[in-house]
Design goal:
3 domains, 14 strands, Rossmann fold, 6-stranded mixed sheet, globular
Length: about 550
Amino acid sequence: MKQVLILNITRMGDLVQMGALLARLREEWPSVAVDLVVDRQFAPVASMLNGLRDIIAYDFHALIDESRACVKDTVVLYREVAAWAEDLSRRRYDRIVNLTFNRPSALLAEYVGAPDIRGARSAWDGGTVIDNPWMAYFTDIHQIRRINRFNLVDVYAMGGSRPGLFAPLCVTAPSESADWARRFLSSHDGLNRAWIAVQAGASDVMKAWRPQHFGVTLARFSRQWDGGILFIGSHSEQGTIADVIRTYREAGGRSAIKNAAGHTTLAQLVALLADCRLLLTNDTGPMHLAVGVQIPVVDLSVGHVDFQETGPYGPGHWVMQPDLECAPCGFEQVCSHHACKERLPIDAVAALMQYAVGQGPLPAAVPGYRLYRSGVDADQLGRYELVSGHEDAAVAWYAAFWRRRWYESFTGQPSRLPALTGLAPDHDEGVACIRAMRPLLDSLCRRADHIVRLTRHMPLPVQTIQALQRAQTEERQKVAQVGAATWATKPLTTAALRLLHQDNVQGLERMATHHAAAYHRWRRETEFMATHLASAPGVDAPMARAPISYAGIE
């Protein structure tokens, strides 16, 4: 019997999003035993997932707090964790899938050990290394998120297992929680109401639509909705919910209201969502719970949220995104205007909710936002179809190109998606960028090869090597700046820089060889892109001849 250990420590949503991974592991190995390491506060969510043998909980948040506050000596903390993890090491797992991309989880993965570790693991010098191409791609997403078209559900599933049939997310509440939810939603006036759920808050105010907009939207929705409105969330969101309800009533809202925020267990929350017809929400953990109980979601994607990464997965959901050049913004970006929160038209959100519950047509397209319908594509992966609004032509072209390219390169299988027709909208800019990169990459390759030869000399010419490395660093910065200028070359540049820094080798000669191989690969992949831009698109042969390796250097 095969045994797999999954490390998933950080967030509630990440746990639900690994549902497709669990299904793929069972498809790969029908009798597989899957164990999960999770933070103690999220163990209740893990208990509602299908396909786990054992849930191993640890108070990682307390561990981090104790480390930061120096409550205990660092060596003592490491010894305590090592003693706890000793039992995991004795289980002799066949595979470890680490979905938490930080140094502590990488150390834990390496300590427990397995012949096949996917995701972050410790390098020989205590750094972090990632071998699997899908997991390595995950670390690049934030640099190329405008053209990313892989939901993290699929990244987890294919990185931790392999491609396969589409697998919906699934969360199941205990029967006692389902009974509690029915009692909670039962009406005191004898009416058997239908309910919609609303999550107006979020863990980060940057990704939350304004409470006043929620209130007015719900008031307009209530003109036709004869059911009730259920507010969900944490106790800390009570102030936000009070603002929503006040605006709702001032705007003439008529539907009955119940507020469950802060008054439920996670199992009870899942049961409440299962009894609702719809969830209107910001990008939150409960959004993924709603997907897991198969109710439609209307996702308001504002701030630094990118629904292509973390939006509702699978068919039957809707995403509204502001039509702004800066949307979505970067995670570390400080926004001075929050204009995205004014771009989602209240009437359109209310109309979309009416459509989702079967009480009206799709809202007519108006400027200011993009509307997407979720679904499943020909490769059995999640997708989002633009229903109304405008996408930048170059972004759309390269998103389709790289979606197909990455799938074929990472899986070694042909994509069922159609090849692109027509040249890239910024064809001339891409060609000019590559023309500027070529001499710089040629020089980098020559210098890297020269450094490799010098590392074999005895005595070692240290000063000469150091001078070459300084020149190499300056030249690499130049080519990286040029390569980041277009979507034709930015993904290759992002991957190349990561590979250069992920030098999990010992010894000067081996490190120099690793760097030289990375520069040559960067050069070859740039040439492949040049060939593609210069020729008629739709020719699949070059893809097979020039695979991208995100795992390491060939």
